[in-house]
Every structure is written in C-alpha cells, then in structure tokens.
Amino acid sequence: MTWKTLFNPFLKFDEKKLLVVGILFFILNIFGCYYSESINDSVFHYSNLDEDQGIWDIVKINSLSYLLAIAIIFILAKILNGKTRFIDILNTVLISQIPLMVMIPVNGLPFYKEAVEKISENINTPQNIPIGDMIMVTIWGFISLIFLIYSIVLYYNGFKTATNIKKWQHIVLFAFISILTTIVSQIIF
Questions:
Q1: Residue 123, SS3?
Q2: Which of 34, 46, 145, 169 has a beta carbon 3.0–4.6 Å from 38's, enabling a disulfide?
Q3: CA distance readout (Å), 40 to 12, 51, 61, 146, 163
Q4: pTM
Q5: Helical axes 86-96 vs 131-163, angle rounded to 10°
Q6: Which residues lie closer than 8 Å to 136 by C-beta, 6 or more apart?
Q7: What are the domain boundaries of the chain?
Q8: Could you read off the pLDDT of 113-165 as tens digits, one per residue?
C-alpha cells in the first residue's frame, strides 16, 4: 500500500468494497458511541449522550447526521459536476469517518473519563489538576487531532475524486459548505 492509496483509497478500491467497509464501520460507530456514551451529531463531531438517551437515539442521530452531510455534499457535487455518482459521495462520507472512530474506545475508558472530569472540575484552579491526567489528556488530544486531520483529508480527497474539481473556488465552496453542514448538524441534532 502506498501513501497515495492511504490518503485517497477512492482511486484504488472498487466503490462496492468501499461501501461495504463504510457500512460496517458505520455500524461499529453506533456500538462505539453506545460504549463511550456519545453521539455522532455531525460528521466531524461527537457529543456526550444525555442520560435519557439510549441506543436507538444513537442510531437515529448518527444516521440523520450522516444523511444530512451526504445529501448536502451530493447536491453540491451535482452542481459542480453533473456526472457525479451518489455512491461516490456516500463512500466519501462513510470512509472519511473511519479515522474518527478510533477515538471512541479511548473516550469511553473509565480512567480517561475520570481524568477529563478532574480537569474540568479544576479548570479555574490549574494547580489542583493532577499532572498525570493533564499529560494523558494532552497526548490524546494531539493524537485525536492527527486522526481528525486524516479524516478531513479523506473527506476532501473523496469529494475531489468524485467530482473532479480543480478550481480553487470550488475547493473553497466545498470547505465552506462542509463547515456549515457540520455546524447546522450539531444545532439540529
């Protein structure tokens, strides 16, 4: 596997195989969210699950946030290139979320949750924050940032491959619509 394949699997792999992998990881995402008590309220964001929410709420919110992103990005893709296929946009959203799912198990670990809670409780008195907790949360924050960047790269490369965009104006429009979709999705869900 080359670097090009790692950062743009949409060029190398068949769309049906990508779809199967994407759907499998979407299902794993639901169970991962249940384990970590979180929801995927937009394609690049996880929120804490409310106490009165269960697995069916996770299924509903995760599904709706993905569907919103797919619908809006597909409309944009069709505007930019009328030959864009739905399966390519579907794969773009599904595959781009896989790196973010790596963060779910860590965020669900009891000792990690406890460390985050201690930091939150002592945010106004930094001298009371345990150094070990601060180091663990900081290191995991940097690792999470790497996964987020990789996810965004997959998202962009998938869209670029699906639409064959080359103009900088189209790229800026794609970035703007993606950010707007992420914010709107978090507000709605």
A1: coil
A2: 46
A3: 28, 16, 7, 18, 26
A4: 0.89
A5: 170
A6: 112, 115
A7: 3-188
A8: 889 888 888 888 888 888 998 999 999 999 999 999 999 999 999 999 999 99
